[in-house]
Design a protein that fits this description.
- The protein has helices at 8-15, 21-66, 70-85, 123-132, 151-155, 189-235, 254-260, 272-275, 277-293, 339-352, 357-362, 387-391, 396-416, 442-463, 499-509, 520-526, and strands at 89-95, 101-108, 136-138, 160-168, 171-180, 239-243, 249-252, 297-306, 310-322, 328-337, 371-384, 420-425, 428-433, 472-487, 492-497, 516-519, 530-538, 547-555.
- It is an alpha+beta fold.
- The strands form 3 sheets. Strands 11, 12, 13, 14, 15, 16, 17 and 18 form an 8-stranded mixed β-sheet that branches.
- Helix 2 packs parallel to helix 6 (189-235) and helix 3 (70-85) packs antiparallel against helix 6.
- The longest helix has 47 residues, at 189-235.
Length: 556
């Protein structure tokens, strides 16, 4: 028979007999001991529950603060909260950028994420917590006069509800909402206090995670921007080199490596004097001007000899690098390789010695294709009379110099009339008119060019001693010819081919010193504009019949 936790009267009734004083005393002592043991057991049980709660809270706090990948940690924390409080569901809501609450984590007692169809909760309770900034605890929302008229509480059959705010530096960032739709009286002040302890740590962890995510997003954006800038920097056709105030090279792009023929490793980290020896002396003074005065250096050109590339023509700009406060941080050097451009310009100048610049400007390179087309042109050939015998008595270098002087004035006379010089044939020149740009007066232009070159040669003759005095003979004819590009993609020749061209050459071969001969058909085109007379027909090679020829004396 046991008497644990029973009163003295209950023990007497159980014994069913009268007890003497001694027995009463001992029984009384036993009952007191039993009561003390029961009270101690209850206290131990309460302390054990508090210890479990504190241990669980410590585990939650440890988990929350152990990782900045907060979502998984919060799911664990909410599962623990449900287990400790006896909640059926628990929601963690956070304010978004629009300051509106949205669910961040939603869990149920089975440690599963709450399905969207099962996520109905009391918006009234949450709104009151946000507005009052105080926790709300109700043991039975159906009977609680604060919520008796609220449709969400009634329609969702909500009973036990516990909701409390989350703060960071006194700013409300969200709420924790837990409920039980089945049992009343699930939550007490003990559960409320437990959640408050958790919420304080959770709010700090959430803010740290938010700050970390913001930093990580910023880092991603900065990284993406750096990659973009690196790609842009690399894709710039101009060479770009930056240097600090001590002229130490900080950056260079691929174009700079290519232009200078120097590897990046040999540039970055070295001084301008050491890293850019080919141009350092040229740009050092400019760099100092930029650093001291902050002015821009634009469009400076230089020719340098590079170890891997030989002679290179460069253009460079130097500008100051400044921070947000407009303090100088160094310089940016922009290099452009002008080598090919200079070469093309030289080639153009050479081409302009053969074709009128006006004609060049009208030509479209994209429309020039291999092959030709038939067109009517006026052909002109001019040749130095007796040059073969003349050349036998002179040094080759002197001979070439004299020849170039004569051919130069001949070319100038042709180009003045916008003729096209096809080629120089030793001591002779071949040119034509009316192509590639149509000229309605092409015959007259050819005759003016012939008279002009005759006069120019006469002036040049007077500048030379008698042994260097030479004379030209000119032949002109017009007719249909094939005009176009002949050759390959690697080597093209823009020329004219046809019987009319050959006839002009044969007429020229029969001309005398300073004599201008034109065919009879050509003369008919300009007879009212020139003074001339017919001479004996010539027997041209390849012709069955003699070719009628006229000598041009002057223009009317």
């Amino acid at each position: 028979m046991t008497y644990f936790g029973e009163t003295l009267d209950e023990v007497r009734i159980k014994l069913g007999s009268e007890l003497d004083d001694n027995e009463n005393y001992h029984i009384n002592q036993l009952v007191k001991i039993s009561t003390s043991i029961k009270s101690l057991a209850q206290e131990i049980s309460q302390k054990e529950e508090e210890r479990r709660n504190l241990r669980a809270l410590a585990d939650i706090n440890k988990a929350v603060n152990s990782s900045l990948e907060i979502n998984e940690v919060l799911r664990f924390a909410m599962d623990t909260i449900i287990r400790l409080t006896g909640a059926e569901r628990a929601f963690l809501m956070m304010r978004n950028d629009d300051k509106k609450l949205e669910i961040r984590v939603a869990r149920n007692w089975e440690e599963e994420s709450v399905d969207a169809s099962d996520s109905a909760f009391s918006r009234t309770v949450i709104d009151r917590v946000v507005e009052s900034r105080e926790p709300i605890l109700t043991t039975d929302a159906q009977e609680d006069t604060r919520f008796s008229v609220q449709e969400s509480v009634i329609s969702y059959n909500l009973r036990s509800i516990l909701c409390l705010p989350l703060f960071v530096k006194e700013e409300l960032i969200g709420v924790i909402y837990a409920d039980n739709r089945i049992q009343s009286g699930v939550f007490t002040e003990k559960e409320r206090d437990l959640l408050i302890d958790f919420s304080n740590q959770a709010a700090i962890a959430l803010e740290n995670a938010r700050l970390f995510e913001h930093v990580r997003q910023t880092l991603r954006e900065v990284t993406e921007l750096k990659i973009l800038m690196d790609n842009v920097f690399s894709s710039i056709a101009s060479g770009v080199i930056t240097a600090d105030l001590q002229e130490k090279i900080l950056l260079c792009n691929q174009a700079a490596e290519r232009i200078l023929g120097i590897k990046k490793e040999e540039l970055v980290g070295h001084s301008v004097q050491k890293g850019l020896p080919p141009i350092a002396e040229e740009i050092h003074e400019y760099i100092q001007d930029v650093l001291s005065e902050g002015r821009l250096i634009i469009g400076q050109e230089t020719r340098v000899s590079l170890p891997l590339r030989g002679n290179v023509d460069l253009s460079f700009n130097i500008s100051p690098l400044k921070d947000e406060a407009q303090n100088s941080q160094g310089v940016a050097i922009v290099l452009d390789d002008l080598t090919e451009k200079k070469k093309l310009e030289a080639q153009r100048r050479m081409f302009e010695r053969m074709v009128s610049p006006k004609v060049i400007n009208k030509l479209d390179p994209d429309e020039l294709k291999l092959g030709g087309e038939r067109t009517v042109i006026t052909s002109l050939f001019a040749d130095i009379r007796g040059f073969t015998s003349f050349s036998e008595g002179f040094d080759p270098h002197a001979l070439v110099s004299i020849l170039n002087r004569y051919l130069s004035v001949v070319a100038d006379a042709i180009l003045k009339e916008e003729g096209t010089i096809d080629k120089f044939l030793g001591d002779a020149v071949m040119a034509w008119f009316n192509a590639p740009i149509p000229q309605s007066d092409h015959m007259l232009r050819a005759i003016r060019a012939a008279i002009g070159l005759r006069e120019a040669v006469e002036k040049l003759r007077n500048q030379f001693p008698s042994e260097y005095q030479l004379a030209f003979g000119v032949g002109i004819h017009y007719g249909e010819a094939v005009l176009g590009l002949v050759g390959t993609e690697a080597r093209l020749d823009y020329t004219a081919i046809g019987d009319s061209v050959n006839t002009a050459k044969r007429i020229q071969e029969n001309s005398g010193p300073n004599q201008i001969l034109i065919s009879g058909s050509a003369y008919e085109l300009v007879r009212d504009q020139v003074d001339g007379h017919q001479i004996a027909p010539i027997l041209a090679k390849g012709k069955r019949e003699p070719v009628p020829v006229y000598e041009v004396v002057s223009l009317r």
